Amino acid sequence: MYARHAKPLTNCRNMIRLKDTPTTAPEHLKKADIKAETQRLVERLGELQRIMYAQKRYSALVVLQGMDASGKDGAVENVFAACAPMGLQVIGFKKPTEEEFAHDFLWRIHRHAPARGMIHIFVRSHYEDILIQRVHKWIDEERVDNRIRAINAFEQLLTFDNHTQVLKFFLHISKAQQGIELQQRIDDPSKHWKHNEGDWRERELWPDYMRCYEDVLNRCTAIPWTVVPVDQRWYRDYVIAKTMVAQLEKLDLQYPPLLK
């Protein structure tokens, strides 16, 4: 009943402007109602994932991108809580290794693309190679353009050649809320393990990151993005769960027949 608030924002007609895009839930929504609906969606997602795993006709690649402390790990934990572990894999991309640096930038990504029946979740992804590298000017704009074309082609390949559903979520956090979340990693002993002094340094580059993210959202659109307001985590979970269920319900998911 709240589906109209979870539609993806793409650049099909209008350019996405992050400064004009809300990071909070619509004011008229009631938190308790949304959390109850989210729980239903999470359980439904679990049902669909089990059928997908058994059928082995389709797969799904979930891309979670966002600034530090935008809630990528929490989204995985909450939204996919009812999914069967054997059909789910979470991959977190860190700084490339020496071997990975010796290959093209998509080499380490493609090897983690999901097999049919699987849902793979990228916590950060191939987009790091046109975000952090671009912000720090480790690559020039010509390489950025070439990589954008390669990313669009790569995502289309997965979709058309292997029945992979690619779902891309930009977790849109405000700078003020990010500051609160980062400070909690210092103040709360249970979150000390998340603290990274480098996150504060990257925060100083906020305008550059917003510029680069905005460009990604408007040019890497072979597969459309869903921009997710995440200042309120309960709404983040709802939007992601709603989008996942809506996409998987479009598929011809059926348990395979009994073999004789």
Short précis:
With 260 residues, the protein is α/β, with parallel strands linked by helices. Helices cover 45% and strands 12% of the residues.
How would you describe this protein?
The chain has a 5-stranded parallel sheet, sandwiched between helices. The chain contains 10 helices and 5 strands, in the order H-E-H-E-H-H-E-H-H-E-H-H-H-E-H. 45% of the residues lie in helices and 12% in strands. It is an alpha/beta fold and 260 residues long. Mean pLDDT is 93; it is low at 1-12.
CATH topology: Rossmann fold
The SSE string, one letter per element, is HEHEHHEHHEHHHEH
Poorly predicted regions: 1-12
Q: What is the number of helices?
A: 10
Radius of gyration: 18 Å
* Structural domain count: 1
The CATH C-level name is Alpha Beta
Q: What proportion of the residues form beta strands (DSSP E)?
A: 5-15%
- Distance separating the two termini: 43 Å
Characterize the main sheet: 5 strands, parallel
At the fourth level of CATH, the homologous superfamily is: P-loop containing nucleotide triphosphate hydrolases
Strand tally:
5
Instruction: Assign an overall shape.
Output: globular
**Structural class determined from secondary elements:** alpha/beta
CATH architecture: 3-Layer(aba) Sandwich
Spatial ordering of strands, largest sheet: 2-3-1-4-5
